Amino acid sequence: MRKTLLMMTLLAASLPAGAPSPDWNARLADAIPLLGHRNWILIVDSAYPLQTSPGLETIDTNATQLEVVRAVLAAIN
């Protein structure tokens, strides 16, 4: 069963909620084909409130925002 992601939040700074995901590029690559025109990808810093609603996925990248933006744009392209 394919789970549709309503929104994927990529965090550029570490959050106390969990450890950084070393495979965030692979998770991004796996998620992009599942997303449609109504799905959102947010690239935010650690000041963004942690989202815990069903269907949301938060990935702590421990990377710079510029690195994450470039990776997301490349994946979308």
In short:
This protein has 77 residues and is of the alpha/beta class. Helices cover 26% and strands 19% of the residues.
* H-E order: EHEEH
* Number of self-contained structural domains: 1
pLDDT < 50 runs, ≥5 residues = 1-17
Distance between the termini: 26 Å
Estimate the global geometry from the Cα principal axes: globular
Please tell me the overall pLDDT: 76
- Hey, roughly how much beta strand do the residues contain? 15-25%
Helix segment tally = 2
Estimated radius of gyration: 12 Å
List the helices and strands and how they pair.
Blueprint: E1 7-11, H1 24-31, E2 40-44, E3 56-60, H2 65-76
Parallel strand pairs: 1-2, 1-3
Commentary on this structure:
The structure is a single chain. A 3-stranded parallel beta sheet has the order 2-1-3, covered by helices on one side. It has one domain (7-76). The longest helix is centred in the C-terminal third of the chain and has 12 residues, at 65-76. The chain contains 2 helices and 3 strands. It starts with 6 loop residues before the first strand and ends with a helix. With 77 residues, the protein is of the alpha/beta class. β1 (7-11), α1 and β2 (40-44) form a beta-alpha-beta unit.
Notable traits:
alpha/beta
